[in-house]
Amino acid sequence: MSATMTQTRASPSLITSEVPLVAGDVLRAIDTPAVSPPPNSSPPAASPTAPSAKKGHRRTSSAASDIAKAAGIDLDAVSMAEARKVMSEEHKILGFRPPHGSFAAEVQSVAAKHPDRKPGGDAVDTSKLKEIAREDALRILAERKSSPGTDPAALPVSSTDPGAKANGADAKHAAPVKHSPPESGLDLDKISATDARVLMSHEHRALGFRPPPGSLAAEAQAAAARHPDGDGTHLDDGALRAIAVRDAERIKADRELALVGDPAVNISAVDKDAAREIVRAEAGALGHRPPQGSLAAEAQSAGDRHPAGGSFNPGRDRGELEGLKERAREEGARLREEEVGSDGWGIVNGASYADATPAKDLQQNGAIDEDKADAPDAPAKVDSAVETEPMTEERPRVARTLAAAPLERQETTDSVEIVGDVLA
């Protein structure tokens, strides 16, 4: 009897002890903070030092200036043409346009204040600038590889981290709080379609036009199309707005740095047809194909990257396009003057010419113009490759002799007259 009563009294205690387990399962299913998370997914700790943590590839502009000064280079002495070369060098290493805050971006930002170099400034060593740009590109790639799109402060804290153990039992029962990424970066692998639309709206409003391809909003929408639900979390509106505004400022800065001419036109957004006209205009003034680093070469590179043009395509406005073509002609004329020496002689393809005009005809048509070739005062030209006897500008007379009408033969008539006299 007593044993039976003991069992009867013990059974409620067993049932009571099982209730928290059942309730715990239910609470765990609905992600209630009262339930401890799995052991392998410790909650990220909100570090008070997060604002001062390392922020991806971004850095203050003074850092790039200090690097240049350490190399003995004054960024104020860099012209826009030299800045374009630095941007091209870093772009080549990165595989994409150097971001805002990179060394190349700062060099262009400084050069935009004085496109023709600061008055009284000395010429800078472009090779040193390119070397710094290459090192900066490798740094950006390394940082993106180690923390792609996220800040270290936003990463989950390991369960073995001492800071996670400091809270004791309270840390074990804390809910897994998911923080928005810091303003310096955005994890495109976890963003949802809803957040991508909000980001696009904020950046559209900040720019005043739809964010172009390559913008953070456009990349976020493309990434969210692969995982519309993201990782199940949503970023707060303030963080999305801050990220959008910062990216809009970067796009505006890049647009201003790529503007040339008066009125300013964005050379980096020309389409393939407009680039072809610009190249033709500069080649006509220069006498041969424009070299690397010229306005025409930059336009052709932009046309190859996006044949249809960018969001600010000046090819759609004939006035802007004509302004670019005129600037290309001016640059071609300046380069032509630099190629022709003080004695008035230029060199193209190893041959010397008294003027760049015959060289242009030889480069474009494959032969020297006939009218200029028949000129009586045309000086002789020497083949510098073989240094043989001088060649004259006059065309060979053999071709004209062969082209003349054949002489009439009189032998038959003379023979008949002779025979007639003999018979008589």
From TrEMBL:
* Signal sequence bounds: none
Which residue stretches belong to region Disordered? 30-67, 142-188, 203-236, 281-424
What are the Basic and acidic residues biased-composition ranges? 226-236, 315-339
Q: Which domain of life is it from?
A: Eukaryota
Stretches with biased composition (Low complexity): 376-385
Biased composition (Pro residues) is annotated at: 35-46
Q: What is this protein called?
A: SMP domain-containing protein
Provide the species name: Dichomitus squalens
